Amino acid sequence: MTNLKKTALFGFFILLTLGIASAAYGQVSSASAGGIAPVQKCADLVNLKIPPSTMVITKAEAIPTAPAGTVRANALSPDMIAVAIPSYCRAEGTLDPRTGFDGKPYAIGFAIALPDNWNGRFLFQGGGGLNGSVNPPLGGQAAGDAPALARGFAVVSTDTGHKGAVFDAAFMKDQLASLNFAYIAVGRVTVLAKEIIAQYYGQPAKHSYYDGCSTGGREGMLMSQRYPTYFDGIISGDPAMRTGYSNIGLTWARVAFAQIAPKDASGKPDPTKDFSDGDKKLLADAIMKTCDEKDGLKDGMIFNPQACHFDPDVLKCKGAKTDSCLTSQQTGALEKAFSGPKDSHGNQVYSAFPWDTGYLSGAGGPFGSFLPSGGPNPLASVLPPANMDIDNLVAGVEANENQTLTDTTFTNLSTFFGHGGKLVFYHGTSDPVFSPFDTLAYYEKMAAANGGADAVTSSSRFYFVPGMNHCQGGPATLDKFDLLGAVVSWVEDGTAPDFVVATGKAFPGRSRPLCAYPKHAQYKGQGNPEDAGSFECVK
After folding, report:
1. Which residue among 32, 214, 373, 534 is the active-site one?
2. Residue 234 and which of 211, 223, 256, 539 are 20 to 30 A apart at CA?
3. Which of 295, 351, 438, 470 is catalytic?
4. Contacts of 159 (CB under 8 A, 6+ apart)
């Protein structure tokens, strides 16, 4: 995209975003900033008008307290929230309704939860996939046992301007719908939500936070890069920050396995038969044998992924294939897939994936998203060909204007950090969709652009989550941790989160510190090995 086009689009974004209220950090309209009478009751929100916006609140109802264990944590999890959700007002509405070029109706849908016992804070809950629906505004991502709403945050969520299934990209044919998904809608909804909060409570939020994973993680990065004055603290998990290149990485891996796959009845390669369950266990055991104790303790978890230099050739059969070895074709495909794609000049196109056992969780699990035991990854833009022309695929990504709009690789965060903003990243080391090393590469580039690694720790941190799949889950992970509370303490009390304690269903009774990069959790050599207090953060 030319600089002229980028400038024009950026100007368009400024005009659209600033149209309903001041964009200055912490500001709302002059009326609410001056202190007005709050809305008397929840149902009255349907009559709320915020000129000159086109917002319409279509529904507002008082929600009674929900006891612990009665509300689902999120749409992707069967788990129930472990604490009660106190009573709140839930309002649903739309912004900017219109008819698209395709004759379909479009609008930015949103839902906002306004707790009766408000703590003065606002949280924007990030989306997932290609969005397309308004998820319940709970704020549970990376929040441990207590989602933001249970703590008294006002929480908003949005569909970013279109309706459809989570990976339905049909809306991208409409220019404004595509721009809304890329960056406009989250900015519009942020300003709108702050105004609703101010009108409802009679005062603006004292602090504003953003929390999301995957697409929500990308949106969090987007907030720090394009809306640097909107939020005090941002949490970005497993971000979908450059999906054109990650799709190349996934396709690269699938091609590597397709090339060694046996043929099905129709003559097509069937990569699901590349590795038996026994082969997967053999591989997982070998990875653990090589890397598990590098953090000082053999515990079935790899806390130092950068020190895990596993070579699949150690499993190569010296003769015929047996249950205790892998063929040279299998080990070659593994090495190629995990190393990531390179172009014809040897440049790394997408990051390597860390050697971790969470990829090997069996058919239908994350193993099928990266290694061959399930269906095609829903984020992949192309099906694996027999061979790949990496240079042409890269050229295709660079020519894709939608990709240019959605990528979040801008590193100048001087304004965001300048007003005291805090930015936290986390990424599961068994994420089969986006490599944690790619997120780390951004973090290091961003640090270099903002004063260097030491200086940036006063404003930003990065955490590996051992064994965690995409945003949650995994057969050997502790995926429950409270980064939300940590960021609030950092913003409001100045307490930097050198580590956060993690627990999870995979290891009942176990806790570990997730240490801020470049440190990792190391066993002290004594003390209860199941307790986080027996570990320290070391380089």
Report:
1. 214
2. 539
3. 470
4. 108, 109, 110, 127, 131, 132, 133, 134
